[in-house]
Amino acid sequence: MPAKRPKNPARELLFGDLWEFDPAPETAPAHIAPRYDLFINGKSTPPKSKKWFDSISPGDGKKISEIALANEADVDAAYAAAAAAFPKWSATPGAERGKFLYRIARLLQDRSREFAVAETIDGGKPIRESRDFDLPVAAAHFFYHAGWADKLAFAAPGRTLAPLGVVGQIIPWNFPLLMLAWKIAPALACGNTVVLKPAETTSVTAMKFCSILQDAGLPPGVVNIVTGAGDTGAAVVKHPAAAKIAFTGSTPVGKWIQHTLAGTDKRLTLELGGKAANIVFEDATIDQAVEGIVNGIFFNQGHVCCAGSRLLVQESVAAEVLKKLKLRMRHLRVGDPLDKNTDIGAINSRKQLEKIRDLVGSGLQEGAEIFQPDCRLPSRGFYFPPTLFSGVSLSHRIAREEIFGPVLSILTFRTPEEAVEKANNTPYGLSAGIWTDKGSRILDMAAKLKAGVIWANTYNKFDPASPFGGFKESGFGREGGKQGLLDYAKIV
Ligand code: NAP
Ligand code: MG
Q1: Whose CA is nearest to atom 39 of ligand 1?
Q2: What is the pLDDT, as a whole number, of residue 24?
Q3: Does the beta carbon of 225 lie inside 6 Å of ligand 1?
Q4: N or C terminus of the chain with fewer C-beta within 10 Å?
Q5: Contacts of 164 (CB under 8 A, 6+ apart)
Q6: b (16+ CB within 10 A) / e for 188-222
Q7: Cβ(233) to ligand 1 under 6 A?
């Protein structure tokens, strides 16, 4: 006899308030200095601007440090140091350059708990994620590129690769140390020198990383870090000594950079925003898909460029998916980022919290139906509950604009063709997810989806050997893998 399907597929064990988590705060010291200057020519350097700005912890809204505000003269000094270091560094044999990258990777591993705590205090992400994702993957990027440094000849067989020169790099606040690793590791492996600007709200781990560069004995000037806001970034972009600009951030700023560099001979790679479709077919393993949906949108509070922020569910299983998803969302723990039990930490900044509130407000105004589980948010700091919108249509702002927060929009489809059409109906093209039991459907969908990264029966998986990047308004160029490496070299 076939097994009877349970009447209520989303069964729940109810324990009432018998099971409460005790607080499990991470207590390792983060060693955050009260003030950070710029890192130029291998040394901590006070800014010529004589200005510093406050760095806030979004977990409680308190000031944790002061960060130097680099002006044009400071950026100029950083480029001068990088240009002076370039001839010797680019002539250093690959095997020797690789040793520095190995040392950096090992030192990051040695201090990974300290860096994870600092990342969580500075940026608000749960300690579980900074400890188990950001730090190991950042170290993995240095290990991976250390391996390439003496094997560049194999990246372009029969051709000779040469470094570009000084590269200007600008990174966002969602994965501060990891984005730094994605940028610096391939640049150094190919023999370039670097001027890097972290995001204004998350500069702490980049400045701590400078002590790792010093301990690794990296020659002065090979990596220079200038902190500040948008104006500092603009000065990095416009500097005449830059041979290439590598930018990760929002699409509007990316467009401005492309416009600014037009007509120059500078190279450019852009890793911009996204609005990924996570597509669930009726033959998918629904429980597994629900976990993937939760990971896809609530990982790092949804501050993820490749977040699965548009859930496309086949109509026949939409009710079941929605029910199970709501049940799962009720068990997500929102709160203190330093608590090891926390699933969803703090929103990175007050500004980002306001943006999320504005877009959620537009979803309500345009008539979508909202679900938020009951959860007590901490009274201090910046928090937003996990949120799900059903009854969403493609014209709604919440279906079109990148929210960059823990907010999921659900749309339905009937046929694979309709799923493809809806998934591709966006200006972005960074990532997508497919959930199905059929291998042939995965291959067919993957060929039709216009997205740089496509996951099947999983989501948000990263590996340094696997290139990452987008199409359309999500940018161009790749990070990771051979493709990412080649974006930091020229064929001579
Ligand atoms: P953003 O405002 O574009 O900022 C990114 C970086 O650019 C920051 O360091 C920022 O400095 C700097 N910046 C701002 N204005 C600039 C200018 N005129 N010239 C040069 N630099 C300038 O983006 P965000 O809000 O920090 O980051 C979120 C965005 O990044 C999202 O759209 C997300 O999708 C995207 N992202 C993409 C990827 C990817 O790989 N595709 C990965 C992560 C994030 P301040 O922050 O100091 O102002
Ligand atoms: Mg901060």
Answers
A1: 271
A2: 94
A3: no
A4: N
A5: 190, 192, 243, 244, 267, 488, 489, 490
A6: bbbbbbbbbbbbbbbbbbbbbbbebbeebebebbb
A7: yes
| Upper half-sphere CA count for residue 43 (Cβ side, 13 Å) | 6
Domain hosting residue 53, numbered range: 35-272+474-491
In a domain, 209, yes or no: yes
Q: CATH code at 295?
A: 3.40.309.10
Residue count (the chain): 492
Same domain assignment for residues 309 and 385: yes
Full-model pTM: 0.96
Averaged in consecutive runs of 10 residues, what is the pLDDT profile of the chain (492 residues)?
55 72 93 98 98 98 98 98 98 98 98 98 98 98 98 93 98 98 98 98 98 98 98 98 98 98 97 98 98 98 98 98 96 96 98 98 98 94 98 95 98 98 98 98 98 98 97 98 97 91
- pLDDT score, position 1: 46
152/268 same-domain check: yes
- CB distance 405 to 362 below 8 Å: no
Q: Do residues 430 and 274 touch, judged by C-beta distance below 8 A? A: yes
Pocket test of ligand 1: the residue of 72, 171, 174, 182 to mutate, having most ligand atoms within 8 Å of its CB, is: 174
Whether 245 and 112 share a structural domain: yes
Rounded CA-CA distance 154/157 in Å is 5
β-strands 369-371, 387-390 pairing = antiparallel
- DSSP assignment of 354-422, as one string? HHHHHHHHHHHHTTPEEE----PPPSSS-----EEEES--TTSHHHHS---SSEEEEEEESSHHHHHHH
Identify the pLDDT of residue 4: 58
